[in-house]
Automatic annotation (TrEMBL):
Top-rank lineage group of the source organism: Eukaryota
Keyword Thylakoid: no
GO BP annotations, alphabetical order: maturation of SSU-rRNA from tricistronic rRNA transcript (SSU-rRNA, 5.8S rRNA, LSU-rRNA); positive regulation of transcription by RNA polymerase I
Physiological role: Involved in nucleolar processing of pre-18S ribosomal RNA.
Keyword DNA repair set for record: no
Protein's organism: Amphimedon queenslandica
Family of the protein in this entry: Belongs to the HEATR1/UTP10 family.
Subcellular location: Nucleus, Nucleolus
Name this protein carries in UniProt: HEAT repeat-containing protein 1
A Gene Ontology molecular function term of the record: snoRNA binding
Any one Gene Ontology cellular component term annotated for this protein: 90S preribosome
Keywords for this protein: Nucleus, Ribonucleoprotein, Ribosome biogenesis, rRNA processing
Amino acid sequence: LLPEESFNVEQVVQCLRHSLNPQTQHLSLLLLSTTASIYPDRILHNLMPVFAFMGSSLLRQDDSYTFDVINKTLESIVPTLVKLLQNRVKVPVLLVTR
């Protein structure tokens, strides 16, 4: 497994946002979705540019593969994000109630 500090999420997001090649965009999204459960904090901090890109660029590509990539990305990132945020919310609440 790649050490967390060796995986540069920002570079993957920049590659996604600045590439004009749909294959590069798809592969960047698939890489982010695959690593979401491994490095959830790093993905979380770069999520807004990813979703903004998906909304402004990928949704305009009306093909089934792009839809599958978007679907896979959402199916992997959103549950990971929800779980991460639920864990973060529980800690302060427990500290306050003690």
